[in-house]
Write a structure and sequence with these properties.
The chain is α+β, with helices and mostly antiparallel strands and 618 residues long. The protein has helices at 12-21, 24-32, 48-56, 77-84, 107-116, 121-136, 146-152, 163-180, 190-200, 220-234, 252-299, 312-315, 402-411, 432-435, 446-459, 470-479, 486-493, 548-565, 591-601, 613-616; strands spanning 58-59, 64-68, 71-74, 201-202, 241-242, 348-349, 355-356, 421-425, 428-431, 465-467, 509-516, 519-526, 531-535, 576-578, 602-603, 606-607. The protein contains 20 helices and 16 strands. Strand 12 and strand 13 form a beta hairpin. The chain is flat, with a radius of gyration of 36 Å. The chain starts with 11 loop residues before the first helix and ends with a helix.
Length: 618
């Protein structure tokens, strides 16, 4: 593909340097104009590689960024307001060429004026123009837009402008000019464009702090780390999790449901308060019975015994152990009324004014003896009580349900006939012997991989993926075609394609599993982004070029796909080759299982769900 360069006058470094030199009164005036969000910007660099990708994938007609074949992000005034806090209501600014009484000067002269002018109307107009010239709507000129200067300093100007919409309009106009001309200058706020992308397209491996506003967290280091992670994992941009905008205006039905939910919440809150009141009353009764000792037990046969062998307050966790460093004292008799003692540690006063004993340290440690050696902690066994306050022993169960266990027993039973047919679907058949490759240290065979490709092809509801048979790669490799003519390719290899009842026009990705020397890999041909990806679960050193056999396979697939679509031939030279990072196998024989998972989860250059190798071996 032809390389492009990008040039811009967008300079957040210059803008932030000026703002840092302004006094508190001028910064407060900037906040009063609703331009204070610009002071929260922490990134000073414009990432040209990211901005170039965004500009090349931006549709100026719909004003949407084509992140992937299925995800689009619309650039709106609301998005500018969310990031920079600029006003999004008011009139649309019309930039005129009428001169004003204020002469147009250089950008450096404007900086000097902003430092010298007092807070007033002239300062506000000069600041708005400076912000537009540096970060909001920069042009290709060194000193900014002359017409905008005269428009802001005109006698009829009023600051009731929808500045968020102005930023969007200037940016879209600059992108359109870049796409239609051969010039390298991009006009508009590229700093907004890159912040919009990194916030809306999330990479799960990069942790982003939660800040208000959100742009405060996006420093130059964080943006660099996030872009490096995306390029390392996927090879290019546009493969993260797209965060869709949710409308904030509730419907009438949602408003009614909201009132109903609030009523349920208030009723639940009242119930919880009543339960807490009952619990406090029960705790006070338990405490008073413990204080009463045997006298309370004699007067009330339903009272809890105060024996140390069973204490509701201790066993149910109503009181907590107090770790005291006081000397250990002899334990009080079970029939002796409890008394306050400074040696036993402090007490806790309840809500009703009663004093409750706190468990002393000797209840946890074994008393000291004359024997030499270490003092060991006493580990008490949990009481066998069916109480919600006592954790009950858990028995770990198998992750396989009973019906699946029965199926596994039938498939992998060595005493049964290995030639018995167990799978029959989508014009393919598998025997017990074929499925035995999933057991032990066996490799996945062509029969199982072919059946799984057929299954994925018929289960693909979006009709954007095309799964090819591994036999196609085997036949092409064995035949070693020298002359790759379209008629020859269609005649020899078309019959190895699956018959599908879906149109080929929507196919964006083609998956071709390869078996080379008992090792499975997969070629993914991304038609939309013109790239070929090799997914290898073995890991190791990254390859920068395809082998001759892989190149022949890719050319055959591209020729057949163009024939099926009825379009002109795809040129192999226009595709780029990359090897994305994928989870690695932990032995020599599970490559086929990983390739099957890759085909299931791979979408638009990345895995739609993470794969944990530890879970696969569990």
């Amino acid at each position: 593909m032809q390389e492009c360069t990008l040039l811009t006058r967008c300079s957040p470094t210059r803008f932030l340097r000026l703002c840092s030199n302004l006094d508190d009164g001028k910064q407060q005036a900037i906040h009063d104009m609703q331009f204070g969000g610009l002071l929260a910007i922490t990134c000073k660099e414009v990432r040209h590689n990211l901005c170039l990708w965004i500009v090349q994938n931006f549709d100026v007609g719909s004003r949407k960024l084509q992140v992937s074949p299925v995800h689009q992000l619309e650039v709106t005034a609301e998005a500018v307001n969310d990031l920079f806090g600029l006003p999004m209501h008011g009139r649309i600014l019309q930039v005129t060429s009428n001169p004003s009484e204020h002469p147009f000067g250089r950008l450096r002269d404007c900086e000097d004026r902003l430092n010298q002018l007092p807070v007033g109307e002239e300062f506000r107009r000069a600041f708005i123009w400076y912000a537009c010239a540096t970060i909001l709507a920069p042009t290709s000129r060194v000193d900014g837009c002359r017409n905008l200067w005269h428009t802001l300093h005109g006698d009829e100007f009023r600051n009731d402008v929808n500045w968020a919409q102005f930023v969007v309009d200037e940016l879209v106009s600059g992108i359109r000019h870049f796409q239609q001309s051969e010039k390298a200058w991009v006009l508009g706020s590229l700093v907004f464009l890159q912040l919009f992308y990194v916030i809306k397209v999330r990479i799960g491996s990069v942790a982003v702090p939660h800040t208000i506003p959100s742009i405060v967290a996006w420093t130059d280091d964080l943006i660099k780390t996030r872009l490096q992670a995306e390029l390392r994992d996927y090879g290019s941009f546009g493969h993260g999790e797209v965060i869709e905008d949710v409308p904030n205006t509730p419907t009438d039905e949602e408003a009614e449901n909201s009132d109903e939910l609030w009523q349920q919440y208030e009723a639940a809150e009242r119930t919880m308060k009543e339960q807490l009141t009952i619990m406090k009353r029960v705790m006070r009764q338990i405490h008073s019975r413990r204080r009463g000792g045997t006298h309370a037990s004699a007067s009330n046969p339903n009272a809890f015994p105060s024996s140390p062998s069973f204490s509701p307050a201790a066993d149910h966790g109503f009181q907590f152990a107090y770790h005291s460093t006081s000397p250990l004292q002899p334990r009080t008799s079970a029939h002796t009324p409890a008394r306050q003692s400074s040696e036993d540690g402090p007490n806790v006063q309840g809500d009703d004014g009663s004093i409750a004993d706190v468990m002393p340290l000797r209840a946890i440690f074994v008393p000291q003896t004359r024997r030499s050696g270490r003092t060991h902690r006493l580990r008490r066994a949990a009481p066998s009580l069916r109480s919600p306050f006592v954790p009950q022993p858990q028995t770990r169960q198998s992750a396989l349900p009973m019906d699946l266990k029965d199926a596994v027993a039938v498939v992998f039973n060595p005493d049964l006939d290995p030639s018995e047919e167990l799978v029959s679907m989508y014009d393919t058949h598998l025997t017990r012997g074929n499925l035995g490759c999933f057991q032990g240290s066996n490799w996945i065979g062509n029969e199982v991989m072919d059946a799984y490709c057929r299954f994925l092809q018929h289960e693909d509801c979006g009709a954007t993926k095309l799964f090819l048979s591994p036999y196609l790669a085997e036949i092409v490799t064995q035949s070693q075609p020298r002359a790759l003519h379209k008629e020859t390719i269609v005649k020899q290899y078309e019959r190895w394609w699956y018959d599908i009842d879906k149109p080929y026009d929507q196919v964006m990705e083609v998956f071709l599993p390869l078996l080379t020397k008992n090792h499975w890999t997969i070629l993914v041909l991304d038609i939309c982004n013109l790239r070929i990806q090799l997914l290898d679960p073995c890991g190791g050193r990254k390859k920068t070029h395809m082998t001759s056999a892989q190149q022949i396979l890719a050319k055959v697939v591209l020729c057949l796909l163009a024939h099926k679509k009825g379009v002109s031939e795809y040129h192999f030279e226009t595709f780029t080759f990359i090897m994305p990072d994928v989870p690695s196998q932990r032995n020599e024989h599970d490559c086929g299982v990983f390739v099957m998972k890759f085909m299931e989860l791979w979408c638009s250059g990345g895995l739609s769900k993470s794969i944990d190798p530890a879970q696969m071996y569990a």
